[in-house]
Design goal:
Blueprint (H helix, E strand, L loop, with lengths): L16 H12 L5 E6 L4 H14 L3 E5 L17 H4 L1 E5 L2 H10 L3 E5 L6 E2 L9 E5 L16 E4 L11 H18 L10 H14 L1
Helix pairs in contact: 1-6, 2-5
Bound molecules: S-adenosylmethionine (SAM).
Length: 208
């Protein structure tokens, strides 16, 4: 007999053994101390490509700033991407609100930005809790954001063109973070508490 006091939403769907194993393996590699901030990234293709790269290396949540009134064609639209099922997006309409949220989680904030004091990606420690900020396709990381950062990081380039596409820059940066973290053993043991694992597992099971 079912318990009448339980709501339909309380039930966790039963998954196949294979799917459950996959979910648990993915959760055991999640990196709650690494995140990405997209500041006024316009093109939904770029947003989705960035979310896919985040999922691929175990990022759980990202921060999206929209101070330019862009329509939510991107991460808000569940039907047009699958990565946004597995990576949670926090949306902000001001730089300050986003910075406050990042500081509350003790992230060091690094802008991917070509400045005279920018450190190479390969000389930046990406094993510590860090939020990597990526800027708008045309204007880069804004003057409003830069005073809040703890440092700038650049991807070395030796060609004629000065910058990479934002989603490419993100993938390159995240795979350097992955390399450093793999070497430092960050993917060996889960970083989530049992409660966090169950909470996300349940949410994913309900979505799948
Ligand atoms: N004209 C813009 C500028 O001056 O920043 C170029 C923006 S670029 C097309 C879009 C974003 O990709 C940048 O804000 C940055 O986040 C990232 N990016 C592209 N190339 C980069 C590089 N070589 N080093 C670090 N970040 C880079």
């Amino acid at each position: 007999m079912s318990n009448p006091s339980r709501k339909l939403a309380d039930y966790v769907p039963i998954l196949t053994e294979k799917r459950e194993k996959k979910f648990r393996e993915v959760l055991s590699k999640r990196q709650p101390d690494l995140t990405v901030v997209m500041e006024n990234v316009h093109d939904p293709h770029n947003i989705f490509a960035i979310m896919r790269s985040c999922d691929a290396i175990g990022i759980m949540e990202i921060y999206i700033i929209n101070t330019q009134g862009m329509k939510k064609k991107g991460a808000g639209n569940k039907s047009s991407s699958s990565a946004n099922k597995w990576v949670k997006a926090h949306n902000f309409s001001s730089v300050e609100a986003c910075v406050l949220a990042l500081r509350a989680k003790n992230y060091k904030i690094i802008a991917t930005h070509l400045a005279s004091d920018s450190k190479s990606l390969y000389e930046t420690d990406l094993t510590e809790p860090v939020a990597l900020v990526f800027g708008n396709e045309k204007d880069g990381v804004s003057e409003a954001f830069l005073p809040h950062v703890d440092g700038n990081m650049k991807i070395p380039m030796v060609g004629q063109i000065q910058s990479l596409n934002v989603s490419v820059a993100c993938a390159v940066s995240l795979y350097e973070a992955y390399r450093q973290r793999l070497q430092a053993g960050h993917y060996e043991n889960t970083k989530l508490t049992p409660e966090q694992t169950e909470e996300i597992y349940t949410a994913w099971a309900k979505k799948s």
